[in-house]
Each structure stands twice: as C-alpha cells, then as structure tokens.
Specification:
With 336 residues, the protein is of the alpha/beta class. It has 2 domains: 146 residues, 2-Layer Sandwich (Endonuclease, Chain A), CATH 3.30.870.10; 172 residues, 2-Layer Sandwich (Endonuclease, Chain A). Helix content is 38%, strand content 23%. The chain has 11 helices and 16 strands. The strands form 3 sheets. An 8-stranded mixed beta sheet has the order 7-15-13-12-8-10-11-16, sandwiched between helices. Helix 2 runs parallel beside helix 3 and helix 6 runs parallel beside helix 7.
Length: 336
C-alpha cells in the first residue's frame, strides 16, 4: 500500500475504519499522504469517526490539501478498508492503520483491471454521502458497470438494502456440498447464520472456523466468541484457535469459491456497518488462502467445551445478544 501511494501520480482514494497516526516512522501514512497532496496528487479520504487521528495530524493533512471527511451516522460505521491509486490499482481487505495491529494475522488483496472501476464507483458513493462535491470523484458514481471474470467486487451498504452479505453467506452455506472454511476474529452470528451452519453440518458438510484463542482488541469480544464457539461446537462445527491474534475475514466453499473483505461474522457487519470485499472463483487465490490458513493452523489449538464452563452466564449472554439482534432488526426496518 505504501509503495503504491508513494508512486501515485494523479489520485489517491482512501477509505478506512481505523486510521491512526500511531504508526512507526516507516509507515507514516499521514506524512506520505500530505507529501503526495502537496506534489499535486488529488488525495480524497473518508474515515470513520472511530479513526482516532490527533488534531495535529488532521491539520497537517488539511493544510496539505487533502480532502478529508469523517463518516458519521447514527449507529453505523464505514468498516471498509479501501485504497485506490491512480484509478488503476486497488487494495481491499481487513487491515487497519495503527502500529498496535502490526503482529496480527491479517489479509489485504491487491487488484488491477476493470474491477477497479467498481471500487472507484463504490468510493464515490460514500464520498458523496459524506458531502464530497469534487466532479473528479463524483463522475465515477454515474458509471454503469457490469462484472465478469473470476473476481467480483462487492459493496455492502446496510442503509441502501438489501444486505448483500447476508444473501451471499446464506446462499453459499446452504449450497455447500463438502466443506466450509471461515476465518474471522469475532463471532456473534445472526440466528439465521447459526441455523444455516447447523443445517450444513447435518448434510455432512465439514464446517471449520479459524479464529483467535484470545481476541486482544476489543477483549470484550471474547465473551461472544466463546459463547458461540460452544454453541456451534454442539452442532458439529470445528474450531481452530490461533495463539496469535487473527483479524482476517474469509469464507471458502468447497475449495471452489470464496469471499474476502472487511466483514466479520457478527451482527454489526451483517446489519449495521458498510463493508467491502471481493467474491472469487480464481483457483490460484483460493489455493493461496488455503495455504495461508494451514500455516496459521500450525500454531493453533482445537476448541473443546472445557475451555468454557460458565454455562449459566452463557444463557444470560445468549438471551442478551438475541434481544440485541431483534433491536437491530427493528432499527433497520424503520431507518432503511
């Protein structure tokens, strides 16, 4: 990402969930983006209000001519991690900008070709929603595009409906014949997803989820992680827990297709947040992701119910999360 930004000659479109100036000198995005803007490159940024940038860094970016917007909407976030350079190269995945995350297992994919037009159009929509007015960006929002090939870009805008991620996960899990491999840092699935995974196991599909043994940020996520690990384990879902924090977001079906992006397996990604990523049937990419996952699993342990024995507390948590999911559905019904 830094190399592409440093080599930019015309434009940089950057959308990020966590964009912090708490980085090493070798990864100082604020300085590099400021320098590119001063040199004449159009730098457009949309960052979530959760970004955690200091006032000095904000001033430095704006003084350099960077057009920067914060995404602020009640109970919603842009959880997307999108970078487009010179309208030719795009980066999509789960990586945030903060040195705290430097040792996490995470994934970012670089894409080129016509698919980048779809990423630019998606960025333009968010840019416009945040108040952006530059015709240079907005012209991409008006493009009529079609997708062909083995890699497709997806955007998940909960406020636009329908929830595209929900349909993809539901359909692919329901039609899986042999295997489902999911990688996620956080596990707080919707009830429909729990039912879909249970049905898959009952059909004889091997369902495996790879996730961290301890979620280091936020630590409160371990409550829901272990609650739903225990619940899904009872249905036959297998869990590999990595000793290092894993932050990747992947699902692979029958070793033939998959999805990679910014989405977690939780109600926030499915029902609240804006997400982005790629669907794919590209065999080389699928093989690479299986190899990476196998490597992570070498330093992992299998989940057993003995790791979670506070069953009374589990019932309280499960009831609370179900109420929370119902509240989200009601909120979406009245706000979309």
């Amino acid at each position: 990402m830094l190399e592409s930004i440093s080599a930019a000659t015309s434009s940089i479109f950057f959308e990020m969930y966590i964009f912090s100036d708490n980085t090493f000198a070798s990864h100082n995005f604020v300085d590099i983006l400021s320098q590119k803007s001063i040199s004449g490159v159009k730098v457009k940024m949309v960052i979530d209000s959760f970004a955690n940038l200091s006032d000095n860094s904000l001033k430095k970016l704006k003084d350099a001519g960077v057009e920067l917007f914060f995404f602020k909407k009640l109970f919603r976030s842009t959880h997307r991690k999108v970078l487009v350079v010179d309208e030719k190269v795009a980066f999509i995945g789960g990586i945030n900008i903060n040195k705290f995350f430097r040792k996490w297992h995470d994934l970012q994919v670089r894409i080129e070709g016509k698919i980048v037009n779809h990423v630019m159009r998606s960025f333009a929509r968010v840019y416009k929603k945040c108040g952006g007015r530059d015709p240079f960006v907005l012209k991409y929002d008006k493009q009529r595009l079609s997708q062909r090939g083995k890699i497709w870009f997806f955007e998940h805008f909960s406020h636009r409906g329908p929830f595209r991620l929900n349909k993809y996960y539901r359909d692919k899990i329901d039609y899986a014949k042999e295997s489902i491999l999911i990688v996620t840092p956080y596990l707080m699935p919707n009830q429909w997803l729990i039912v879909a995974l249970k049905r898959a196991v009952e059909r004889g599909v091997n369902v495996e989820i790879v996730m961290p043994k301890v979620a280091t940020n936020p630590k409160i996520a371990n409550w829901s992680n272990y609650l739903y690990m225990n619940k899904l384990y009872q249905y036959g879902v297998k869990f590999s827990l990595t000793n290092e924090m894993i932050h990747s977001k992947v699902m692979l079906i029958d070793e033939q297709e998959g999805i990679l992006g910014s989405q977690n397996v939780d109600v926030f990604s499915f029902d609240f947040n804006m997400e982005a990523g790629i669907f794919f049937t590209e065999k080389k990419l699928i093989d690479n992701l299986y190899d990476i996952t196998r490597h992570w699993k070498e330093d992992s342990v299998l989940f057993t119910p003995k790791m979670r024995n506070n069953y009374f507390f589990d019932h309280i948590l499960d009831f609370s999360f179900r109420i929370f999911e119902y509240i989200i559905k009601c909120f979406n019904y009245f706000t979309i």
